[in-house]
Design brief:
The complex is a heterodimer of chains A (271) and B (68).
Chain A: H1 3-13, E1 21-23, E2 26-28, E3 32-35, H2 42-52, E4 56-63, H3 73-76, E5 81-84, H4 92-106, E6 110-113, H5 126-138, E7 142-147, H6 151-159, E8 166-167, H7 181-190, E9 196-198, H8 204-213, E10 217-220, H9 222-225, H10 230-250
Helix pairs in contact in A: 2-10, 4-5, 6-7, 8-10
Chain B: E1 2-6, E2 9-14, H1 18-24, E3 35-38, E4 41-42, E5 58-66
Parallel strand pairs in B: 1-5
Antiparallel strand pairs in B: 1-2, 3-4, 3-5
Classes of the chains: A alpha/beta (271), B mainly beta (68).
Pathway (chain A): Cofactor biosynthesis; thiamine diphosphate biosynthesis
Domain Thiazole synthase ThiG (chain A): 22-264
Keywords (chain A): Cytoplasm, Schiff base, Thiamine biosynthesis, Transferase
């Protein structure tokens, strides 16, 4: 066991009623971060957010269009911790400007940093991502970067001062779950900031798995918003995150190659 | 008369200041959630009134939308 692994385990072992997610010194009760996009309508989104128990809700920042101006996200999400993203940006330059516009529009210096390399795979452009993260941290932002599930990239993001790392479970919107749990564990063993699995989760067991691996939180959107019944899936995700967190803190039994009886072996009749 | 672009679209007859432009675009400049960049730099809301537009300016006006 590495030293950091030891730190992480002892931290997990102190689990109590006051088990909080702390990012950049700010404590949150919920370990589920939820996106606001793609719901059948705004009421379903609000009901899903309520059912999920999420405190942190992601939004995008886009060019204004008169048609879209009717209902303001700022107003409907006034009781949430709104986390703007830089989704769709393909260069560090665009991502940095988007983050700055978001700071002005929403009055928050927190940003979910996303710099994608191409619009088909939606894989991060790691070089541009690290560059943008560095620039934004220097400008006073609390940067939560969406990245590959790659321990080297995660370390680079931590080194430039990111307040969390958010490795992908699998490609955005794919619902494939956690494609490479070993890589997520490697990141967990080394990171000294919260690790939040972002993207690719498809159903409740994926969220539970992320938490059982030791992740500090999960961020998802499509799995809820495109479910047949988004509100019910939001509720399922909340329960899954809680269950996975509890299982992690409880400490699972080791895997064995063979059976191990659970009932007493003495006093069997007929012996 | 200034020729500028707003969110990538040309405006042949732009007003004098950024605040007037936001109004001319049909937006309430005092409404929460708006942000404006001029030539790649954010212009804080309190400076909209005294920011004079110049020919060739590229203006971006954004607001929060749903996002993941």
């Amino acid at each position: 066991m590495t030293q950091l692994e030891g730190v992480r385990r002892s931290r997990a072992a102190t689990g109590s009623e006051a088990d909080r997610l702390t990012i950049a010194g700010r404590a949150f009760t919920s370990r589920l971060l939820l996106g606001s996009a793609g719901y059948p309508n705004q009421q379903v989104m609000l009901d899903s957010l309520a059912a999920s128990g999420a405190e942190i809700v992601t939004v995008s920042v886009r060019r204004i269009s008169l048609e879209g101006y009717a209902e303001s996200m700022v107003d409907v999400l006034s009781d949430k911790f709104v986390l703007p993203n830089t989704a769709g940006c393909e260069t560090a330059r665009d991502a940095v400007l988007t983050a700055r516009l978001a700071r002005e529009a929403l009055g928050t210096s927190w940003v979910k940093l996303e710099v994608i390399g191409d619009r088909e795979t939606l894989y991060p452009d790691v070089e541009q991502l690290v560059q943008a993260a560095d620039e934004l941290v220097r400008d006073g932002f609390v940067v939560l970067p969406y990245s590959n599930e790659d321990p080297i990239t995660a370390q680079k993001l931590i080194d430039v001062g990111c307040s969390a790392v958010m490795p992908m479970g699998s490609p955005i919107g794919s619902g494939q779950g956690i494609a490479n749990p070993t890589a997520i564990e490697l990141i967990l063993n080394r990171a000294n900031v919260p690790v939040i699995v972002d993207a690719g989760l498809g159903t409740a067991s994926d969220a539970a798995q992320a938490m059982e691996l030791g992740c500090d939180a999960v961020l998802l959107n499509t799995a809820v918003s495109k479910a047949h019944d988004p509100v019910r899936m939001a509720r399922a995700m909340r329960a899954a995150v809680d269950a996975g967190r509890d299982a992690r803190l409880a400490g699972r039994i080791p895997r064995r190659a063979h059976a191990e009886p659970s009932s007493p072996q003495m006093g069997l009749i007929g012996s | 008369m200034n020729t500028i672009t707003v969110n990538g679209e040309p405006r042949e007859a732009a007003p004098d200041t950024l605040r007037q432009l936001v109004e001319a675009e049909g937006l309430d400049p005092d409404r929460r959630g708006l942000a404006v960049a001029r030539n790649g730099r954010v212009v804080p809301r309190q400076q909209w009134e005294r920011t004079e537009l110049e020919a060739g300016d590229a203006i971006e006006i954004v607001k929060p939308f749903a996002g993941g």
